[in-house]
Amino acid sequence: MSSHPKPEPVGDVVGASVPKPDAREKVTGRAVYTDDLRVPGMLHGVLLGSPHAHARILSYDTSLAKALPGVRAVLTAEDLPPVDIGAVIKDQPLLARGKVRYVGEPVAAVAAVDPTTARRALELIRVQYEVLPPVFDAEAALRPDAPVLHAPRGPGHPNAASHIRLIEGEPDGAWAKCDVIIEDVYETPAQQHIYLEPCSTLAEVDPDTGRITLHTSTQTAFRVQAITAEALAVPMSRIRVLVPRVGGAFGGKVESTNQPITAALALATGAPVKMTFSRTDDMTMMRSRHGARIHMRTGATRDGRILARQVRIYFDTGAYADDGPFVANIGSYFARGPYRIPHVDVECWCVYTNKLRAGAFRGFGNPQIHFASEVQVDRLAEALGMDPIELRLRNALETGEKWLGGAPVESGTLHACLERAREVSDWQRRRQRAPPAPGKRRGIGMAAVAHVSGLLGSSATVRINEDGSVNVSTGAVDTGQGSDTALAQVAAGALGVPLSQLHFSRPDTDTSPYDWCTGGTRTTFTVGHVITQACEQVREQLFEHASAMLQRPVQQLELRPGGHVGVRGEPGTSVSFGAISGYALYVAGGPILASARWLFPAWQLDTQRTHVEGLTSMGNGFFVFAAQVAEVEVDELTGHVEVLEAWSVHDVGRVINPAAAEGQIQGGFVQGLGYALTEELLWKEGHLLNPTMGGYKVPGALDVPRAIHSVLLEHPAGPGPFGAKGVAEVSLVGVAPAICNAIRHATGANIRRIPATGERVLRELLARETQGGH
Predict the structure, then answer these.
(1) How far apart are CA 289 and CA 278, in angstroms?
(2) In this model, does residue 345 exceed pLDDT 60?
(3) Separation between Cα atoms, residue 371 and residue 191, nearest integer Å
(4) What's the maximum distance between 2 C-alpha atoms anywhere in the chain?
(5) Where are the transmembrane segments (predicted)?
């Protein structure tokens, strides 16, 4: 990708910690979420989940449920179009058709006058099953004798949703040149998104036109529109999607089935239907992060050059592919890490099992592979007798070098991140193991992190109103992270207007320009890019009219803060946006407005450099880098780990809103803390054992470190607005390995499976003592 111009913002709004405009309404409880919506005649929808992990459906009997007073509709797959949906593979029905593939899979849907009646109707539905053998382990699912979950689609094992192979250099011959080789197997859990607002949709059908309007908690209005139209076999023009406030998502509200099922109930009843999941239904029916097992071997010379790496990755995608093949792409693509390792062999499978489907989740396959890679690099440093940061510095990719597959690293700032992390964490002193409290051991660990910013397509429209105010419209959804604020700052900075003069519209598929999704560290980066492009076009129109009004050539004009165009070198000569807009509306030119669109270009893998199977291109985005450090204290008696302090250093390009960026980093660290120490979905024979907030352990206020230091490095580069880069996902990616490396520094325990619960840490400590460690 070529270099990009980085225009400077006008005024001081870009780089300011502007408060989120929705903060007051959320704090006071006035914010309207989907479940707050009420309309006359509204019914309530609920779903019946499968009691079996793998079974053939023999028959349904819904007669008793339909006869229950207050029930308006009972649907099964027989009442819906025979359509399967899926982001990559069309393998998932809205309601189980023919057989069920995980415990909790929706089998029937009910609409009734109130939730109590609806749930009573579920108890009256009779479904006869023929139980089939299940498989719950991804590697076991690839064995020749494993139960087959889906009809074969081609060569290879039918339970492999995707298979990838990437080879660079000559890995088979490189191992003999390595002085130190570390080999291990790493496991990461299925993590639940735990957004505070469960999935919720209100569907209304126009009685005259049959048009369906969906109010829904989602990350993507346009994907909801497309998926609902596809699933119900209706034109997209018959679906309108509006997005109220969203109470978190983290990837869990992208490719969802709750919207089309709710719409189907509304069509069946001719009445509005709202379906809001309970926490348990959300956890058992929606999706999780992919659990993974990673076999990794890394070799280096005694002077610290990493020469070779071999990786075998098994992503457990659950019963349906969902975003699994995309997650496997990212996991494979980052398996080399942000290092110049010349000889690499990566093989990755995305595998069907009889568990809850897994999909997109903050980091998108990268937290799994970074855990294995960064823990192994630390062990390599230990074996070489090198400082962990020094080893990473010696091998870190720099600007102009190539990523695995040949993509150029255009802004290689990992060195800067590592050096800054070493400085701010007082790394050298803390590595001396400060004396802890009695019965405790203290250690510090770190991880180098790489991710990407930007993905797929976006568009935006900017309009100057007659009073000089500015309307900005995109389809981007603010899921609570504050993207509306940052994007408004981008527009205000590009045009030189105060935020009070700018209105940012909410997503509506009838009126908003297209945006693929809020996810993939893309919103500020990608949508901000198209906003600046649209603002540039608006600026040209403003200058054209101002030139006529001021009788000055365009080349002498400049934007001035407060929404004015002035003459360079003449402080007293200017004209307001309002006056220019009035001139355009009533004298010449017409309304001042502009639209911009952009599709982030996919990088075609260099097949001359890399042997590639199962992957041809990466719509991957712009590389971003970070370094994360954690100091821990481990209880020798219980194995309990307390994270005392943390440092997260990020190259943010150009910071748009420092407070928002710091909040993203701190929030990402806490979510990564849960991934590292406490969070894990647990199954027994396919039944989820902890589908409640009581049983699923997210970090509480007392679990958070006393300080999470967010350090923002500014190295503007790339097509993001004013050179901005993303930070949302990368803030989580390196947390687990940094914490586990700190545990090993404190105790010598090699943590290969997360979460690093007290029991697992204690088991490693006892094993180490048995083997003669200390």
Answers:
(1) 19
(2) yes
(3) 14
(4) 88
(5) none
Which H or E element spans position 127?
strand 126-131
Cα→Cα distances 671→39, 250, 284, 405, Å = 36, 10, 20, 30
Could you give the 3-state DSSP secondary structure of residue 724? coil
* Cβ pair 212, 245 in contact under 8 A: no
Average pLDDT over residues 134-138: 98
**Rama region for 169: left / alpha / beta (φ>0; ψ in -120 to 50; rest):** left
Mean pLDDT of 23-32: 92
Buried b (16+ CB within 10 A) or exposed e, 394-407: bbbbeeeeebbbbb
How many Cβ atoms are within 10 Å of 87's Cβ, its own excluded?
19
Which alpha helices (DSSP H) does 349-498 contain, by range? 366-384, 388-395, 414-424, 427-430, 483-495
- Identify the band that residue 434 occupies on the pLDDT scale cut at 50, 70 and 90: low
Q: How confident is the model at residue 458 (pLDDT cuts 50, 70, 90)?
A: very high
> DSSP readout, 639-694?
--EEEEEEEEEEE-SS-S-HHHHHHHHHHHHHHHHHHHHT----EETTEES--STT
CA dist 403 and 610 (Å) reads 11
Q: What whole-number distance in Å separates Cα of residue 250 and Cα of residue 611?
A: 33
C-alpha 110/C-alpha 65 separation (Å) is 9
Which domains are seen in the chain, by residue range?
23-31+455-599 (3.30.365.10), 133-146+156-189+196-397 (3.30.365.10)
Q: What is the mean pLDDT of residues 349-377?
A: 97
pLDDT at 30: 94
* Helix axes 414-424 and 388-395, enclosed angle (nearest 10): 160
Q: Is 454 left (phi over 0), alpha (psi -120 to 50) or beta?
A: left
Distance CA 18, CA 486 (A): 9
Residue 747: CB atoms within 10 Å:
24
Q: Nearest CA to 633 among 761, 493, 517?
A: 761
Question: Scanning the structure block, which residue is given the tokens 């797929």?
Answer: 456
Residue 773 has pLDDT above 60, yes or no: no
Q: In whole angstroms, give the CA distance from residue 581 to residue 405.
A: 50
- What pLDDT is attached to residue 1? 40
The dihedral formed by the CA atoms of 211, 216, 219 and 220, expressed in degrees to the nearest 10: 0
Band the pLDDT of 418: cuts 50, 70, 90: very high
Res 724 pLDDT > 70: yes
As a whole number of angstroms, the distance between CA 167 and CA 97 comes to: 40
Rounded Cα distance between 195 and 218, Å, is 11
Residues 6 or more apart whose CB falls under 8 angstroms from that of 548 comprise 583, 588
CB 506 within 8 A of CB 242: yes
Distance CA 451, CA 519 (A): 13
Joined together, the tokens standing for residue 564 give 């004015």
Q: Which of 18-22, 297-301, 541-545 has the lowest mean pLDDT?
A: 18-22
**Is the separation of the CB atoms in 212 and 196 below 8 Å?**
no
pLDDT band at 4 (very low <50, low <70, confident <90, very high): very low
Residue 188 β-bridge partners: 292
- pLDDT band of residue 414 (cuts 50, 70, 90) is very high
pTM, two decimals, is 0.95
For the record, the structure tokens of 764 come out as 């490693």
Question: Where residue 436 falls among pLDDT bands split at 50, 70, 90?
Answer: confident
Q: In what order do the strands lie in the sheet with 239-242?
A: 71-75, 106-112, 43-49, 273-276, 200-205, 212-216, 239-242
Q: What is the CA radius of gyration of the chain?
A: 27
CA separation for the pair 304, 381 (Å, rounded) = 8
DSSP code for 524: I
Q: What is the length of the chain?
A: 774
Angle at 392 between CA 389 and CA 394, to 5 degrees: 110
Task: Say if residues 661 and 711 touch (Cβ distance below 8 Å).
Answer: no
